[in-house]
Amino acid sequence: MNSVLIHGLGQNSSSWNETILYMIEQDNVICLELPSFLNGENVAYSNLYNAFSEYCDNISEPLNLCGLSLGAVLALNYAIDNPRKVKSLVLIAAQYEMPKALLKLQNMIFRFIPEKSFNSMGMRKKDFIELTNSMTNLNFNEGLKNISCPVLVLCGDKDSPNKKATKNLAESITKAEIQFIKDAKHEVNIDAPKELAEILNDFYYRHKV
């Protein structure tokens, strides 16, 4: 059974490296590189999601999707659209209704960051801003009822901007569990990789993934 790890905005596939070291089923883990999915297309959420969906559709067996931030949005979107295709879902620092004020603030911060700081992320500063702008109107409230697989909703206990959404998301999804990871901020896979891996190992074991 394939476990697909989807990184957040500002990360790349290597952001999962230390987490994977502590995972039991390492051979079945796939780490995606999101910028590669755009392949020359306009940097917009719809294009990224369509390419991500096509990738998942081409994997024959049911998937265990685990995403952080942007990765969690993609995983949630796919699970809503393809409930029979997703065996389990782990959502880290997820938003199901985009916080417009937070995205606007994030874009303002991006504008002051030097271009060279984006080089290791596979996208230009302009791309980051265009992508977040294209996500402003995303709202998955109505689709949450379509999710029937086991769901684990996670958040760093120091990730204040996402704690409320994490609680609300867990309450809105049938079979959802929730856990806050001590001393972790937004990038849980970097702040607390061992703790995250242990939580994933337990979740996957209990659900025979």
According to DSSP, the number of beta strands is: 6
Q: Describe the main β-sheet briefly.
A: 6 strands, parallel
When the domains are counted, the total is 1
Strand percent estimate:
15-25%
Query: Order of strands across the widest beta sheet?
Result: 2-1-3-4-5-6
The CATH architecture designation is 3-Layer(aba) Sandwich
Low-confidence stretches: none
Q: Could you please say which CATH topology applies here?
A: Rossmann fold
The CATH class is Alpha Beta
Description:
By secondary structure, the chain is of the alpha/beta class. Strands 2-1-3-4-5-6 form a six-stranded parallel sheet, with helices on both faces. The model has no long low-confidence stretch (mean pLDDT 90). β5, α7 and β6 form a beta-alpha-beta unit. It has a single domain, classed as Alpha/Beta hydrolase fold, catalytic domain (Rossmann fold, 3-Layer(aba) Sandwich). It is built from nine helices and six strands. α5 packs antiparallel against α6. The N and C termini lie close together (7 Å).
Summarize the structure.
The chain has 209 residues and is α/β, with parallel strands linked by helices.
Spell out the blueprint of helices and strands.
Elements: E1 3-6, H1 17-21, E2 29-31, H2 35-38, H3 45-57, E3 63-68, H4 70-81, E4 86-92, H5 100-112, H6 125-134, E5 151-156, H7 160-172, E6 176-181, H8 188-191, H9 193-206
Parallel strand pairs: 1-2, 1-3, 3-4, 4-5, 5-6
Helix pairs in contact: 5-6
Q: Main attributes?
A:
six-stranded parallel sheet, 9 helices, alpha/beta, 209 residues, 6 strands, globular, Rossmann fold
